[in-house]
Task: inverse folding
C-alpha cells in the first residue's frame, strides 16, 4: 500500500492521549506553586523536545540529500511529515513568549530586570539574554526552518505529481539539493542560538561551548528512535513494503552510532569541564550531581549502556523486537535528558522568586516530585505531546504517496542491501 489512510481508530487513540496531556497540564497548573513553575517547566520541556525532533528530521533529510545518499529515499516521507511539526511547534513556543512578556512565568532568571541590574554576569549577557532577542530570534529562526521544511516537501511532492522523465525528476532533485545545502549551515548556527536561548539560559550563569552539540545529538537520536518506531508500526499495517530489514539495519546503525556520539559529548562536557575546575562551568554539574544524582547517572545508563549492549550485536539491528526495545529506551532516555537540562535551573529561579534560597553552590534541596524525578503528571503530559506529534505526522503522511516514485534514487533505495547480508 503506497497511500496511507489515517483511520478513525488511530485518530481516536491519539486524541485520547492528547486529552490526557491537557488534563495533566491542567492538574499541574491548579495544584502548582504560586508561580506555576511545574506547569511551565513541563510545557517548555515538551515543547522544545518535540520541536527539536522536527528540526532534526529536516536536518537528517538535508544531510542525506547533500551527501548523495540514496538508501533513505524510501522512508523520507516520514521525515518530511515529522519536519512539518515545526509549524505547531512555533505556535507552542509563542505561548512561552507570551508568558515571558506577560510575566506569567519565571523560567528564566535573566527575564527579571531587577535581578539583572544586581548581577554582573547577567548584565554582561543582557545583550543576548533578553525578551526581544528571545522573541524575534524564535520567530525569525523557526520561521526559516519552516520555510525550508515546506519548500523541500513541496518540491518532493511536486516531483511525484508532475515528474516527466528522469531529466525532469533530477531537476526537482537538484532543487531539493540546493535548498538542503543552504539549510545545513543555517540549521547548524541558528539551532545553537535557539538552544542557548530556550534551554541553556535556564542556568544563566553557566556556559558551555559543547552544549549545543550535546543537545542537538540528543534531538537527533530521539528523532531516529521515533523513525524506527513509526516505520515498524506502519510496516505491521502493510505499509512501506519496499522497506526491508536492510533499511532497518542502517537505522539501527545510526541509533547505535549517535548514542555513542552523544555519550562522547556527555563525557567531554562533564569530565573536561569538571577537571578544569572553572566555577562558571562546574556549577551546572555540581547542582545535578548533588540534588539529581539518580537521574544524572540513569541518563548515562539508559542513553548509552542499554542501546550499546542491545545494538552492538549486528543481528539485533535486523530484528523488530530488539529495535523497538532500544528505540523506546532511547526516546524515553533523551526525554529524561531534557528534563535534567531544564528542571534544576528553573527550580532555583522559582525558589528565588518565591523568596527561598537559589544558590546552587551552597544548598542541598529537598526531593520534589516533578523536579527531582518525573511524576505521573510529567509522563501524562509527555504522552499528550507525543500523540500530538504523531497526529500531525500521520495527517501529513496522507497527503503524499509513501513511495516517492519519481525520485531519481528510488531504485537504489528499493534495491538497498547491507553487506554481508546480501541474499
Result:
Amino acid at each position: 500500500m503506497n497511500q496511507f489512510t489515517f483511520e478513525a481508530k488511530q485518530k481516536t487513540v491519539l486524541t485520547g492521549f492528547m486529552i490526557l496531556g491537557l488534563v495533566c497540564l491542567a492538574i499541574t497548573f491548579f495544584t502548582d506553586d504560586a508561580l506555576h513553575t511545574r506547569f511551565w517547566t513541563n510545557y517548555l520541556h515538551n515543547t522544545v523536545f518535540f520541536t527539536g525532533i522536527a528540526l532534526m528530521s529536516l536536518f537528517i533529510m538535508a544531510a542525506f540529500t547533500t551527501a548523495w545518499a540514496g538508501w533513505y529515499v524510501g522512508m523520507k516521507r516520514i521525515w518530511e511529515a515529522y519536519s512539518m511539526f515545526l509549524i505547531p511547534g512555533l505556535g507552542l513556543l509563542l505561548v512561552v513568549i507570551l508568558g515571558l512578556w506577560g510575566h506569567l512565568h519565571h523560567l528564566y532568571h535573566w527575564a527579571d530586570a531587577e535581578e539583572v541590574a544586581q548581577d554582573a554576569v547577567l548584565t554582561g549577557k543582557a545583550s543576548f539574554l533578553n525578551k526581544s532577542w528571545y522573541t524575534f530570534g524564535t520567530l525569525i529562526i523557526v520561521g526559516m526552518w519552516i520555510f525550508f521544511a515546506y519548500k523541500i516537501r513541496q518540491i518532493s511532492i511536486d516531483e511525484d505529481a508532475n515528474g516527466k522523465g528522469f531529466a525532469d525528476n533530477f531537476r526537482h532533485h537538484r532543487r531539493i539539493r540546493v535548498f538542503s545545502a543552504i539549510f545545513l549551515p543555517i540549521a547548524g548556527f541558528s539551532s545553537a542560538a535557539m538552544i542557548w536561548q530556550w534551554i541553556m539560559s535556564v542556568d544563566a550563569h553557566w556556559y558551555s561551548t559543547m552544549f549545543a552539540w550535546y543537545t542537538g545529538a540528543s534531538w537527533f537520536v530521539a528523532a531516529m528512535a521515533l523513525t524506527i518506531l513509526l516505520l515498524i508500526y506502519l510496516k505491521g499495517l502493510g505499509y512501506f513494503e519496499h522497506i526491508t530489514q536492510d533499511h532497518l539495519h542502517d537505522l539501527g546503525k545510526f541509533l547505535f552510532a549517535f548514542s555513542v556520539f552523544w555519550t562522547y559529548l556527555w563525557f567531554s562536557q562533564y569530565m573536561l569541564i569538571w577537571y578544569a575546575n572553572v566555577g562558571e562551568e562546574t556549577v551546572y554539574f555540581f547542582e545535578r550531581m548533588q540534588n539529581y544524582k539518580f537521574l544524572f547517572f540513569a541518563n548515562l545508563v539508559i542513553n548509552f549502556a542499554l542501546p550499546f549492549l542491545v545494538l552492538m550485536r549486528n543481528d539485533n539491528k535486523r530484528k523488530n523486537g530488539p529495535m523497538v526495545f532500544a528505540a523506546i529506551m532511547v526516546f524515553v532516555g533523551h526525554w529524561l535528558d531534557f528534563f535534567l537540562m531544564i528542571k534544576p535551573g528553573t527550580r532555583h529561579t522559582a525558589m528565588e522568586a518565591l523568596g527561598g534560597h537559589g544558590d546552587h553552590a551552597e544548598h542541598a534541596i529537598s526531593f520534589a516530585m516533578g523536579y527531582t524525578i518525573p511524576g505521573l503528571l510529567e509522563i501524562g503530559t509527555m504522552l499528550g505531546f507525543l500523540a500530538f506529534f504523531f497526529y500531525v505526522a500521520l495527517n501529513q503522511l496522507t497527503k503524499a504517496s509513501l513511495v516517492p516514485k519519481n525520485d531519481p534514487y528510488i531504485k537504489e533505495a528499493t534495491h538497498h542491501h547491507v553487506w554481508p547480508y546480501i541474499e
About this structure: The longest helix spans residues 320-353. Residues 358-362 have pLDDT under 50 and may be disordered. Residues 8-396 form one domain.
